[in-house]
Design goal:
Pfam family, one (chain B): PmbA_TldD_3rd
Shape of chain B: globular
Largest interface: A-B, 80 and 84 residues
Mean pLDDT of chain A: 96
Distance between the termini of chain A: 47 Å
Number of strands of chain B: 21
Helix content of chain B: 10-25%
Strand order of the largest sheet of chain B: 3-2-1-4-5-6
GO cellular component, one term (chain A): cytosol
Organism (chain B): Hydrogenispora ethanolica
Low-confidence stretches of chain B: none
CATH class of the largest domain in chain B: Alpha Beta
Distance between the termini of chain B: 62 Å
Largest sheet of chain B: 6 strands, antiparallel
Helix content of chain A: 10-25%
CATH architecture of the largest domain in chain B: 2-Layer Sandwich
Radius of gyration of chain B: 24 Å
Low-confidence stretches of chain A: none
Number of strands of chain A: 26
Structural class of chain B: alpha+beta
Mean pLDDT of chain B: 96
CATH superfamily of the largest domain in chain B: PmbA/TldD superfamily
Shape of chain A: globular
Structural class of chain A: alpha+beta
Number of domains of chain A: 2
GO molecular function, one term (chain B): metallopeptidase activity
Protein name (chain B): PmbA protein
Oligomer: heterodimer
Chain lengths: 474, 434
């Protein structure tokens, strides 16, 4: 089914075009990003039901202008007469800049954005449009999923089934660009919480993609496995601290890709001299088995779009090619400063926030090994699955990955013993250079949100094949 | 706009109750690379968040369904009516036990005094910047980059029971990255500071401490493999550590069965040998962006003690979940206060220890009590000398350490958290980086 664009944006477009035209009399570069994304989050658990606005809902505008030295922005969400909006943008551009220059603050100088004439629109496809399935049916399906879970286990304290759908619509206008796009993504979670003898454990299974309510059927099919996973954790022990041979499942591989050379090659970090990766371009940073991509056009997942929030077309960047670090991912203003081409990675949390260099779909490319061979090759180690969270350190290449579960491997076999939770840490190049086997199937996961530092949440996906590596666990 | 929404809700025959939360935000933002202003941004946005309630009975039980919807200021009257109708339809499908809305009542406390409300918002930017860069005066260390956000938020909360509250809140955020170089080794320290009132000396002190930490990290050795060791958490990880108790004393967690805490019982186990914690909520905390005389439902709030000397006195809960448990609500207060311990930090360091002041991302699982994180900066004391260390990680479970933990007498404040500067834990698993 074709995803239609926003009626509201279509109605507002004429005024926004006039606004660009009027502002162009005062500023050499003007652009406006207009957004109208709506979504709902439905949750069902043992003791309650929720219907809430999705946190990704937004409707508003951000104007960017070249103020003669660098760029100023104004975010707003009320339409006024064009003359009033022109005054508001001009005032916003000048107010704090004027106050800071009066106080003697030095101001950076950036080049003028040069654009090529581009016009067009993109409409995504989805199995079922969110509006084609009633709220009643969505809640009923979630309730069935919950009831199915409680029928399966007496150890359940609670079981939460959550489904969220978002329809994104954006328009980008500048003196030389007129772009529109609309697409749908969704995500879902199963959260079993189990208890035995006063010991409580939780697990989760997550689902996501450029999908609509058809995601609910994927979720329903995974209920038994999610319960089994949670119950298995009741017998899990703490991992004895140390370095091990590990096999990382695709979800954990995605976390590694994301934290290791995803954040590490965001090129606004190059501008600030915060990224060690800048010094290693053209050099080996990983095993020759490692090739890593990022791009909205590199895969079809929750961060696939036609143009980014600065009007740059989506790309497919090969960050690491057979172990060699090739390039980073860039927003438009960082590319201007660095004299490099923008890669379509300029993303905003919403129209209310600044655009930064952000990841889209980030993943390791497949290899030729089979999982069974990888397990058979390990004398003592762990198969790690269930990515919980991670944190980057672009300056010093430390990495932290919180993993839900490790399955012990001894003498080439899974022993059935579990450790949980597992904290995987290390020095990024050591970890990536230790990769000795890579499986053939790539899977992507997009149910989480990526922050820049501790804020600026953006939708991304990441993943890869199974990999075998050496890592410190604790 | 809020009156139009209220009229539409009042005239809708299927709406049994409603709340409207309005936020009008004006924001000024500066982005620096080193000392140069790289970009300036401004924001003026309005958000209207509506919750509609639908009451019904089934099998003799009262239910209250609800659904939330955001009413964008660009929606027309007919569009708002359609959005409300959709929300009412959804609310009728939500079968939650009935609970009351907050009723009108006089406020009990006042919001702490701030100073961002005086003068033009833009006039505060040079002052904030001066405080930020005051200690940026070293050759080997410097502010790499910084982001400054200053928000003025006009809040109004209206419900169908007659509550109509409003206030103006201010919030500043400074994201600061500091670098330090020793020989050819350069490191960075990151902090994200939030505060509701201008305290230039506190800002400057934070940057000074970051520069000190940067120097220490640049000189740090790799953390040795200590296996089980005494760990002292200092500064920012302390707040995250106490998130377990903050969650477990919550009425919602108790109602949902994810907390087994019982009023009158010890929250730290049966054989406490170390310090017993005291936990309270204080909606009047100075400098906190979460301070407010009423909670997000409009309930007047006041300081309240939840745990005293390790014993749970009452649950922390909003109107809905307190009603479910049949206890008085404390209101949803986001300011957490943990009392300090009986000993100064110096005494906690009497025996060998690993003190950790900075993690990549220290995490406490508020449900299971599992905690851990990669060490970015710590100090290893082997009984003879103390050296800065980095790398490796710690992990553990709070239930294994809570019976003998020690809190420093010295306190810290980080926005909406006041608590001990340090917490000493015994026999924590330490993975080395060597």
């Amino acid at each position: 089914m074709r995803v239609e664009g926003s009626e509201f944006l279509r109605g507002a477009k004429s005024d926004l075009e006039k606004l660009v035209g009027e502002l162009a009399q005062y500023f050499q570069y003007v652009s406006i990003l207009a957004t109208d994304s709506w979504g709902k989050r439905y949750g069902v658990q043992k003791s309650g039901v929720q219907v809430e606005e999705s946190r990704w809902t937004e409707r508003g505008f951000v104007a960017r202008v070249f103020n003669g030295r660098n760029y100023s922005e104004y975010s707003f969400n009320q339409l006024q007469p064009v003359a009033d909006m022109v005054d508001a943008v001009r005032e916003a551009a000048e107010r704090s800049l004027r106050r800071m220059t009066q106080a003697g603050a030095p101001v950076a100088r950036l080049p003028l954005i040069e654009e090529t004439e581009t016009e067009g629109s993109f409409h995504g496809e989805v199995g079922i449009l969110p509006g084609r399935m009633s709220v009643a049916d969505k809640l009923a399906r979630l309730a069935e999923i919950r009831d199915q879970a409680f029928a399966q286990s007496e150890r359940l304290v609670d079981f939460r089934a959550i489904y969220e759908e978002v329809q994104v619509a954006k328009v980008f206008l500048s003196q030389r660009k007129q772009l529109e796009q609309a697409y749908v993504w969704s995500q879902g979670y199963l959260f079993p919480i189990v208890r035995r003898d006063g010991r409580t454990k939780r697990a989760f299974r997550a689902f996501s993609g450029l999908k609509g309510p058809e995601l609910l059927e994927e979720m329903a099919g995974a209920v038994p496995a999610s319960i089994q996973l949670a119950e298995s954790l009741l017998d899990a022990a703490a991992v004895p601290p140390g370095e091990y041979e590990v096999i990382c499942a695709p979800e954990v591989v995605g976390l590694i890709a994301h934290e290791a050379f995803g954040h590490g090659v965001e090129m606004d970090m190059f501008v600030k001299k915060r990224a060690k990766a800048e010094e290693y371009l053209g050099q080996a940073v990983a095993s020759p088995l490692v090739t890593m991509h990022d791009g909205a056009a590199a895969a079809c997942h929750v961060s696939s779009y036609w143009f980014d929030d600065e009007g740059t077309p989506a790309g497919d960047t090969i960050i690491i090619d057979a172990g060699i670090l090739r390039t980073g991912i860039s927003d438009l203003l960082s590319a201007l400063r660095l004299g490099t081409p923008p890669t379509g990675n300029g993303k905003r949390e919403s129209f209310e926030r600044k655009a930064y260099a952000r990841m889209t779909n980030t993943f390791f490319a497949p290899g030729n090994d089979r999982l069974e061979e990888m397990i058979a090759s390990i004398r003592h180690g762990y198969l790690l699955d269930g990515a919980e969270s991670g944190m980057e350190d672009p300056k010093n290449w430390g990495i932290q990955c919180m993993v839900l579960r490790g399955q012990e491997i001894r003498d080439g076999r899974l022993t059935g013993k579990l450790v949980s939770p597992v904290l995987m840490t290390g020095y990024v190049p050591d970890l990536l250079r230790s990769i000795s086997m890579v499986s053939g199937e790539v899977r992507l996961f997009g149910s989480g949100a990526c922050g820049k530092g501790h804020k600026e949440w953006a939708k991304v996906s990441d993943g890869g094949p199974y990999i075998k590596a050496k890592a410190r666990l604790g | 706009m809020i009156e139009m929404i209220r009229q539409i809700l009042q005239n809708h025959p299927e709406v049994d109750a409603f709340t409207i939360g309005a936020e009008l935000t004006e924001s000024l933002e500066l982005f620096f690379i080193r000392r140069e202003l790289d970009m300036n941004r401004a924001k003026k946005v309005a958000h209207y968040r509506v919750t509609v309630y639908k009451d019904f009975e089934a099998d003799g039980v009262r239910y209250r369904g609800s659904a939330q919807v955001e009413i964008h200021p660009t929606l027309s009257g007919p569009e708002i009516r359609r959005a409300v109708a959709d929300a009412v339809f959804a609310a009728a499908l939500v079968r939650n036990p009935w609970y009351p809305l907050v009723e009108p009542a006089p406020l009990i406390v006042e919001a702490p005094p701030g100073n961002f409300g005086t003068g033009d918002l833009a006039d505060w930017l040079p002052a904030l910047t001066e405080a930020l860069y005051r200690n940026d005066c070293h050759e080997a260390g410097w502010i790499n980059s910084a982001e400054v956000f200053l928000n003025r938020i006009k809040l109004r909360l209206v419900n169908s029971a007659g509550v109509d509250r409003s206030r103006v809140a201010y919030g500043a955020e400074l994201e600061v990255i500091v670098n330090w170089r020793e020989a050819d080794h350069e490191v960075e320290i990151f902090r994200d500071l939030h505060f509701a009132a201008f305290g230039p000396d506190a800002i400057a002190a934070q940057v000074r401490e970051m520069l000190h930490y940067g120097r220490e990290k640049a000189l740090a050795r790799l953390t040795p493999a200590l296996r089980q060791y005494t760990v002292i958490l200092t500064g920012e990880p302390v707040r995250e550590f106490f998130r377990y108790y903050q969650a477990q004393v919550g009425a919602q967690n108790v109602y949902e069965g994810t907390s087994l805490f019982k009023v009158g019982q010890s929250v730290q186990g049966d054989a406490v040998r170390g310090d017993r914690i005291s936990l309270s909520l204080d909606p009047t905390l100075p400098f906190s962006t979460a301070s407010s005389p009423f909670d997000p439902d409009g309930l007047p709030v006041q300081p309240v003690v939840i745990v005293r000397d390790g014993r749970l006195l009452r649950y922390r809960g909003d109107t809905r979940y307190a009603s479910y448990l049949g206890v008085p609500p404390t209101g949803n207060i986001a300011n957490l206060v943990i009392d300090g311990g009986s000993r100064p930090l110096a005494e906690l360091k009497a025996d060998p220890y690993l003190e950790i002041a900075s993690f990549s991302d220290f995490q406490m699982d508020p449900l299971t009590g599992d905690f851990g994180g990669e060490i970015r900066l710590g100090w290893y004391n082997d009984g003879h000398q103390t050296v800065p260390v980095s790398g490796g990680s710690i992990s553990g479970n709070i239930r294994a350490v809570q019976e003998e933990m020690y809190l420093s007498r010295e306190l810290q404040q980080e926005n909406n958290f006041v608590g001990p500067q340090s917490v000493k834990l015994l026999n924590v698993s330490v993975t080395g980086a060597q």
